[in-house]
Structure formats: structure tokens, C-alpha cells
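wait is this the right file?? whatever heres the structure
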């Protein structure tokens, strides 16, 4: 058995994206931090996959380093690959831990791929990487999971649009793998079995409603139980009477202007700023 957590397409930015108002990348750091705490406290996955497009394009200085600090809090092993909006791998992996050639966990082998984009905005896997997939699949007795940013589906499949696939998808999937795991296509796709028997899973964008991350529980027989976890409040109109400011001794990233925006974003009706820090108590000696 194995439990896999998947997060994709944060599109982190300090500013709203006027070209894509449905993306809330300016809150991606908060969403990622909430996901990491939930994974550590409640889900406890065997591995966490971050499937690309961590930041928005054009990149802003320091954002990858911020996200790397959040990812370092994960208690599970994790694997991060860049997407088409991220910097080139040699820059991306200056801040983000570079994954090994493969990771073996509980009779599953996770093989990451960083494939170039074509002018048609599809992706293309090199013959060398297809040969690597073939070799790493042939010498492993368990189930293989291919991890890439762009969805990997059979070419005649209608599981995802043709411009969100691989130019040489059929050649890649001639190598028998158990699961292809991707992001990029923001609408996502639940685990779906293709004609060749392989499952395809596409994580929807965590930066867009319903702001979710995903859990795949796979049993010893290969049955996949899938759940989507939303990071916003399940009920709108609630009140939070315990919101801190920068004056809190425990504050990490509090900002009053951002707090008000987050309250609206998460569906709160009202908030109350509440502090109980000892350093705010000033004793004045009376004459």
C-alpha cells in the first residue's frame, strides 16, 4: 500500500494576474503552508509530489526560496519538478532540492521527468529519457509511477486536450507503467484507466477554485482510492476571533492588509484581532 499526496500549479506571485483573474497565486504560499501542515498532522503521506509551475511567469526574485522553506517543513519524502512557467532546471534547482533519478517506496518506483515544451505548447520526451524509463521499469518488480508536469495520455484519448499532452505520447506509453502523474491542465483529471491499462492522473491547480490538493491511496491490488481536499473553509460566513498581527510572539508571516484579503478569500464574515503576548504589557509606575 502507498499514500501519495499531490500538489500542483501554485503560480506563486506577489501580484494578481490580470490575464488570469481566476488564479490566486498571490496566496499560493499560504495555501502551500496550510497543505503542508495538514499533510503532516492528518494525512501523513508516504510521499508528496509537487508537479510543477510553482511560480508565475515572469519569475519574481526570491519566490522559489520562500516556497523551498515551506516544503522543507514536510515530514514525508517529497519530489518537486519544474513546470513550463518555472525557471530552467539549472536555475530552479538552485533553490529547490533536485530529485534523484528515482525514488522507491513501498514497492512503488517514482521516476521524475523534465521534458521540453514544443512550439505547439505540447511536450516532447527525448529518446534518452524514454530509454531511461524503459530501463528503470524493466529492472523493477513493483509498480512504476511516471511523474511529469505535462499530462501524459494516449494520443487518441480524450482525457485531456491535445495541446496538454506529449507529441510522442504513444511512444512513451509503449513502456508499461502503472500510473502517469501530472499537473499543468488546470481542470485536472481523477485517476482514469487508459486503453493500455495505465492510469492517468492530472492534479488541478491549487491556485484556482476549489484550491485543492489530492490524496491517492493505492492498495496492494492496485486499486486507487482518490480524494480531493480543499484548502478554504467548508462553510462561508464564519467568524474568526483569534487573528494575530505582526506583534504576536508566534508570528511568521502576518500582514494586516493581506490578512483582510485572506479573510475575504477564505469566506470569513468577520474577524477580530486578538493578542495576548507578554511583550505588549507595559507597566508604568504610578507617582
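ok assuming it is, sequence goes like this
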Amino acid at each position: 500500500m502507498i499514500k501519495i499526496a499531490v500538489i500542483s500549479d501554485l503560480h506563486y506571485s506577489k501580484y494578481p494576474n490580470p490575464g488570469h483573474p481566476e488564479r490566486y497565486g498571490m496566496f499560493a504560499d499560504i495555501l502551500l503552508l496550510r497543505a503542508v501542515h495538514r499533510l503532516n498532522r492528518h494525512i501523513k503521506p508516504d510521499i508528496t509530489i509537487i508537479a510543477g509551475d510553482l511560480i508565475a511567469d515572469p519569475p519574481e526574485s526570491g519566490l522559489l526560496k520562500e516556497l523551498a522553506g515551506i516544503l522543507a517543513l514536510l515530514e514525508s519524502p517529497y519530489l518537486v519538478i519544474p513546470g513550463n512557467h518555472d525557471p530552467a532546471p539549472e536555475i530552479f534547482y538552485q533553490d529547490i532540492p533536485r530529485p534523484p533519478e528515482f525514488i522507491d517506496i513501498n514497492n512503488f518506483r517514482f521516476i521524475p521527468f523534465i521534458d521540453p515544451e514544443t512550439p505547439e505548447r505540447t511536450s516532447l520526451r527525448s529518446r534518452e529519457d524514454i530509454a531511461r524509463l524503459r530501463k528503470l521499469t524493466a529492472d523493477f518488480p513493483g509498480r512504476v509511477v511516471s511523474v511529469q508536469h505535462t499530462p501524459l495520455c494516449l494520443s487518441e484519448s480524450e482525457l485531456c486536450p491535445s495541446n496538454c499532452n506529449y507529441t510522442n505520447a504513444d511512444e512513451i506509453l509503449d513502456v508499461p507503467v502503472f500510473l502517469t502523474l501530472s499537473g499543468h491542465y488546470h481542470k485536472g483529471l481523477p485517476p482514469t484507466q487508459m486503453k493500455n491499462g495505465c492510469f492517468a492522473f492530472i492534479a488541478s491547480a491549487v491556485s484556482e477554485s476549489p484550491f485543492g490538493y489530492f490524496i491517492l491511496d493505492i492498495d496492494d491490488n492496485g486499486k486507487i482510492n482518490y480524494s480531493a481536499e480543499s484548502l478554504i473553509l467548508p462553510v462561508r460566513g464564519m467568524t474568526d476571533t483569534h487573528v494575530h498581527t505582526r506583534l504576536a510572539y508566534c508570528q511568521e508571516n502576518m500582514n494586516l492588509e493581506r490578512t483582510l484579503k485572506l479573510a475575504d478569500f477564505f469566506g470569513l464574515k468577520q474577524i477580530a484581532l486578538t493578542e495576548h503576548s507578554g511583550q505588549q504589557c507595559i507597566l508604568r509606575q504610578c507617582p
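The radius of gyration is 21 Å. so i think its the right one actually
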